[in-house]
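Project outcomes to date are best conveyed with an example. Our students and postdoctoral researchers have been running inverse folding experiments weekly, and each run begins with a structure described purely in tokens. The record below, which covers 290 residues, was selected by the lab manager from last quarter's runs and is presented without edits.
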């Protein structure tokens, strides 16, 4: 007897709707209830295995939803060469699951073969820009597809800078043809920590380069904002998100929550708020067109 299996959604692009970062506590709920979520993102490195229940579970999710693979360990800005084993394992995962998007962080996290458990900020210099672009080109060639790269939060800066962060990010996209994940929470956190305007960041990113937006919550420690992904999206970040949509148009938007993970309904509520912003933008666009 044939088994009634859902048809695997097409590989891409991601729908211009609100998705959720899928974490282990919620996998069972997603598989059993098939909640109304436009798409899911998972961390690539959690599935760097050759078999077993993790891959089987991800395959079941992929049968029902568009999928985004988001990496945290490529160290695109590092002085070391790209880890060939890491890249090989990522390509195997991409080939198997045909995700709608593949992404990494614009940072460094390794030196001399030693890995640090953090997404560390880059020096915004021409030398660092050349290095990042070489690595992005290498990854895109190996995967045979466009990579999305994401701006990170930062708490320290390498001085002197030869360009502001937004110029650096825009140049990476221009030189490599990669897409951008605009993490609006990271923009807000870094702007508050370093005393620049988050709207200058938005204005410095070229139209058409932003393929995805991330939203999350932060915590404040001794006057410094820390990107903990452990709280709801703050009102100031929702406001900046609305401004980002006004500039870049409707973009697939992800709700991230990685620490103090709440019930899945909390993430659904955050996703609904993002969807309301997207719907409001669409309504305004239709009104202008009419």
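After processing, the design step wrote out the following sequence:
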């Amino acid at each position: 007897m044939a088994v009634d299996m859902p048809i695997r959604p097409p590989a891409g692009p991601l729908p211009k709707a609100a998705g959720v970062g899928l974490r282990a506590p919620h996998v069972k709920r997603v598989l059993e209830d098939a909640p109304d979520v436009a798409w899911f993102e998972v961390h690539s490195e959690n599935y760097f295995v050759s078999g077993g229940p993790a891959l089987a579970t991800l395959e079941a999710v992929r049968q029902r939803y568009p999928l985004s693979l988001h990496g945290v360990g490529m160290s695109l800005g590092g002085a070391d060469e790209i880890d060939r084993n890491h890249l090989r394992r990522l390509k195997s995962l991409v080939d198997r699951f045909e995700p709608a998007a593949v992404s990494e962080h614009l940072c460094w996290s390794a030196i001399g073969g030693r890995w640090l458990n953090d997404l560390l900020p880059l020096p915004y210099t021409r030398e660092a820009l050349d290095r990042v672009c070489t690595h992005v080109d290498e990854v895109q060639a190996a995967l045979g597809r466009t990579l999305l790269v994401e701006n990170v939060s930062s708490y320290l800066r390498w001085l002197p800078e030869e360009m502001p962060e937004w110029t650096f990010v825009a140049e990476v996209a221009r030189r490599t043809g990669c897409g951008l994940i605009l993490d609006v929470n990271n923009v807000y956190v870094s702007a508050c920590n370093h005393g620049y305007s988050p709207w200058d960041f938005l204005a410095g990113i070229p139209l058409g380069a932003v393929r995805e937006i991330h939203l999350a919550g932060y915590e404040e420690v001794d006057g410094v904002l820390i990107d903990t992904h452990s709280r709801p999206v703050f009102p100031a970040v929702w406001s900046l998100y609305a401004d980002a949509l006004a500039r870049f148009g409707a973009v697939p938007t992800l709700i991230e929550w990685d620490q103090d993970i709440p019930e899945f309904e909390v993430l659904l509520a955050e996703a609904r708020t993002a969807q309301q912003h997207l719907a409001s933008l669409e309504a305004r666009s239709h009104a202008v067109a009419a």
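The mean pLDDT is 93. The chain is about 45% helix and 20% strand. The training component of this project remains on track.
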